[in-house]
From TrEMBL:
This is FAS1 domain-containing protein. The keyword Signal applies. It comes from the Eukaryota. Residues 39-187 form the FAS1 domain. It comes from Mikania micrantha. Residues 1-23 form the signal peptide. InterPro entries: FAS1_dom_sf, FAS1_domain, FLA15/16/17/18. Belongs to the fasciclin-like AGP family. Keywords: Signal. Pfam families: Fasciclin (PF02469). Transmembrane segments: none annotated. SMART domains: FAS1. SUPFAM superfamilies: FAS1 domain (SSF82153).
Amino acid sequence: MGSLNYDAFKLIFLMILLTSINGTALPNQNPKSNSTQINSNSVLVALLDSHYTELSELVEKALLLQTLEQTVSHHNITIFAPNNEALERQMDPEFKRFLLEPGNLKSLQNLLLFHIIPSRVGSKEWPSEDVGAAARHQTLCVDEADNHLPLTRGTSGEKIVGGLAKVTRPDDVIRPDGLIHGIERLLVPRSVQEDFNRRRSLRSISAVLPEGAPVVDPRTHRLKKPAAPVPAGAPPVVAEEADGSVKFGQGEGSAYLFDPDIYTDGRISVQGIDGVLLPVETPATKISPATAPKIVAKQRRGKLLEVACSFAGAFGRFTSCN
Ligand SMILES: *[C@@H]1O[C@H](CO)[C@@H](O)[C@H](O)[C@H]1NC(C)=O
Ligand SMILES: *[C@@H]1O[C@H](CO)[C@@H](O)[C@H](O)[C@H]1NC(C)=O
């Protein structure tokens, strides 16, 4: 029953696919636009039919089939297909959510196109195990500045793509217009990682990046450090003190950083501080009521005192801290 439904789904899907080709070819009546007629023996049909169901689904969601049909009408393709495990359990859920947001369609497309090269590289064509033997292949991800995937060998001869992903099922699917190698993890092009970074502070994604490629954005490290950029509109003094604590503001109107990087996205940075910042007094400054900060009386506490309080509070002995 389930498999019948699945077959029916595939058939409908294939029909939609064919309809879409005819649909685009017919209206303009251009005899030159005869290029695409998908062959049922195509590697694309095989992909949709394969056990790489997560990847197929993403290709479909990314609206990439038509692009790929055009590609296979001119070239053989080689697809490095992350297995379902890599796309389900090993993928950072936040990254996956990001990719599936409609506004990030381009990122999803680029991510997927980075797994496909427009030539046929079977396991027999893989670089040998000689030291230093490697091949670099351009991918279909044309938006990527370094749009190449290195194909290499690991220490025990295993085939490696993108410097990190092991080929777990070489030549898994072979068709006249291309083939599919199963790989153990996702390859993330730098441009997509940057798109993601721009919106999120990056923590877990580094786990799925290819090590061999220089894809670790230095900004990543900066985000991880408890850097203390000046919040917009804050008094301009931020000082790191000898003990490593970070102080905002001056004198009575200052506060210590105690919860760094609650939220950062490149433009906005939210830092937790332990007091109320007061503007540095200058004689000519007139503070309008709308912008004057409320003075929460003497909330500013010494750092040591705060530590002492929370420590004592943990034992429930003192109530005098507040
Ligand atoms: C497609 O059109 C080109 C000319 O644009 C022609 O040379 C070629 O033979 C056509 N192919 C098919 C399969 O009709
Ligand atoms: C794809 O590869 C096969 C086998 O190498 C070859 O016969 C065929 O012409 C290629 N197709 C295209 C479109 O290059």
